[in-house]
Design brief:
Oligomer: single chain
Shape: elongated
């Protein structure tokens, strides 16, 4: 039940922070409404432009409750425009605040647009248009937990200098219970979504992140980059148009799981038009464990092209240095390189990999290295005439010879 409605209008005749905040006598600033709102209240922001940076912190606002959140809602998509280049436009440090229906225009600022930190359980950003910065769109950090980022449009975060990433959403270490659902994230000069590793061996990694039903596209990085973090689910997303940046030093894979990521589930995603589909392994910190317990199942990967690829290989699914990885019931087609590449070494050893029940339709099907102890492959379906490459064991265009070389895929079949 709504207790009180507070109104805010752009500055003009009869609009003042000395008003009572009623519909007929609205406040002139959102900050004044934040100051007076209590659990169960709704702040209604009328259409117009507001040059304000909002801080939802203990000294400036009250917390909501699970039964009575405080709602900050735009009417007609009012615009908040950044005026302090080094400060987030919105900082959320309190639980049970819901922010809805705002345009957040960063105007080239290098700060993130929205920052969630500290005690944020039950807080939410939804149906907002977040754009135009040279930093990141949204970040969770400093113990943020229980945050929902839902149905937002996050776009056009760019930095011109080489090596300077601008990500759509960054999940920092110490974050937990973060949900990204139904967002459209595109046109970033970094990753659409990144789960960032801790800066040292003492900080707790991010944990319990759900990335679900988003549209992620057109980035000079990855759709989702998962560094050292735990219990991450990437489910039911649509990912397209990813390529390595100019010079080829990063980017191009739709999903990248590396450093010491652990307990990752990637399922039911549609990936297309990228330099690589899903890559498990790669970069890591010296002395730290490889990615482990990664399940990749029921994904569709297609149109992986050499012109978008890093290292010129355009692989559908790659497993390099990692352990306990399952590739199950994925469909991979139209790849410029191999549909699946496993255990090629260089970065390390792939241990305990299972490749079961996948469908691969490509000119080049499977490439195996020798660094893959415990590999199991069976019940897969392959297009006729495709190349199998077992490295020093030899190459073949026939399944029977492949089975003889590798002693794998005993019950697998050719299609078409």
């Amino acid at each position: 039940m709504i207790k009180t409605r507070w109104f805010v209008s752009p500055r003009g005749p009869g609009v003042s922070d000395t008003n009572d905040g009623s519909s007929s006598r609205p406040f002139a600033s959102i900050r004044e409404a934040l100051r007076v709102a209590s659990p169960g209240d709704v702040i209604l922001i009328r259409a117009g432009t507001y040059e304000e940076h909002l801080v939802l912190g203990k000294s400036l606002a009250r917390a909501g409750t699970p039964e009575a959140p405080i709602i900050l809602r735009g009417e007609g998509m009012p615009k908040l425009r950044a005026s302090k280049p080094e400060h987030p436009l919105v900082q959320v440090r309190l639980p049970h605040w819901r922010i809805e229906g705002l345009e957040l225009d960063m105007g080239g600022s290098s700060a993130c647009a929205v920052s969630f930190s500290h005690t944020t359980q039950g807080s939410c950003l939804s149906h907002c248009d977040v754009h135009g910065g040279t930093g990141s769109g949204i970040s969770t950090r400093e113990g943020a937990s229980g945050v929902l980022i839902e149905n937002n449009h996050i776009h056009d975060f760019h930095r011109e200098q080489a090596g300077q990433d601008c990500h759509g959403v960054v999940i920092h270490a110490t974050s937990q219970g973060i949900t990204l659902r139904g967002n459209h994230i595109h046109d970033t000069s970094g990753d659409a979504v990144q789960c960032l590793q801790p800066d040292d061996g003492r900080t707790r990694p991010a944990r319990g992140v759900l990335i679900e039903d988003n549209t992620l596209e057109s980035a000079q990085g990855c759709a989702v980059s998962i560094k050292t973090s735990h219990e991450i689910t990437v489910r039911g997303n649509r990912m397209r148009d990813f390529r390595c940046c100019e010079g080829g030093w990063r980017g191009g894979d739709a999903i990248l799981v590396h450093y010491s990521a652990w307990n990752v589930l990637i399922e039911h995603n549609l990936i297309s038009e990228a330099g690589g589909g899903i890559c498990v392994g790669g970069l890591k910190d010296e002395g730290m464990p490889d990615p482990s317990r990664v399940v990749v199942r029921d994904n569709t990967i297609r149109d992986i092209s050499l012109e978008r690829a890093r290292n010129n290989d355009a692989v559908g699914i790659r497993v390099s240095n990692a352990s306990d990885v399952q590739l199950i019931h994925n469909t991979i087609g139209r790849t410029g390189g191999f549909a699946v590449s496993l255990g090629e070494g260089g970065d390390g050893i792939s241990r305990g990999v299972e490749v079961l029940g996948n469908t691969m339709i490509a000119a080049r099907l499977v490439r195996l290295g020798l660094d893959r102890p415990g590999l199991q492959m069976n019940l897969n379906r392959y297009s006729c005439g495709g190349l199998f490459d077992a490295g020093v064991l030899g190459q073949t265009h026939g399944l029977t010879e492949w089975q003889r070389f590798t002693r794998l895929d005993e019950d697998s079949l050719l299609e078409g």
